[in-house]
Amino acid sequence: MSDTSGPSITVLYFAAALTATGIHSQTVALPSSVFELSSLGNLLVSLHPNTDLEAILKNSQWSVDAEMVEDQNNVVLKGGEEVAVICPVSGG
C-alpha cells in the first residue's frame, strides 16, 4: 500500500494498534508535502475502517524517528519519517 508519487512515511503499530490493524508496519502516502502529525490519526483511521483504531489512537502517544513526541501539534511530517503508535501498557 505504497504510493511513490509523493512523500510517504512508515507507520509502526504496536500492542492494541497492531491488533486493530492486523499489521506491524505500513507505508503511508502523505496527502501533501507538509503534513501535521496531529492529522495523521484521522488518515490512519480512514485507511483502517471498521476497527477500534480511532479509540486506540486517542489514548496513544507518537514517536517520530524513535523520539517521543510531546505535542503532536508542533510536528510536521515531510516524508521519510518512521512514526510509531505507542499504546498505553497496563501492568499487573
List keywords for this structure.
five-stranded mixed sheet; alpha+beta; two-stranded antiparallel ribbon; 7 strands; globular
Structural class: alpha+beta
Q: What would CATH call the architecture?
A: Roll
Largest sheet: 5 strands, mixed
Mean pLDDT value: 92
Task: Tell me what the structure shows.
By secondary structure, the protein is α+β, with helices and mostly antiparallel strands. Strand 4 (about 60-65) and strand 5 form a beta hairpin. The longest helix has 8 residues, at about 40-45. It has 3 helices and 7 strands. The protein has one domain: Ubiquitin-like (UB roll) (Roll), CATH 3.10.20. Helices cover about 25% and strands about 30% of the residues. Pathway: Cofactor biosynthesis; molybdopterin biosynthesis. It comes from Rickenella mellea. Keywords: Cytoplasm, Molybdenum cofactor biosynthesis, Nucleotide-binding, Phosphoprotein.
Give the SSE layout.
Blueprint: E1 8-13, H1 15-21, E2 25-29, E3 35-36, H2 40-47, H3 53-58, E4 61-64, E5 67-68, E6 76-77, E7 82-86
Parallel strand pairs: 1-7
Antiparallel strand pairs: 1-2, 3-6, 4-5, 4-7
Family: Belongs to the MoaD family. MOCS2A subfamily.
Main location: cytoplasm
Protein name: Molybdopterin synthase sulfur carrier subunit
In short:
The chain has 92 residues and is α+β, with helices and mostly antiparallel strands. It has helices spanning 15-21, 40-47, 53-58; strands spanning 8-13, 25-29, 35-36, 61-64, 67-68, 76-77, 82-86.
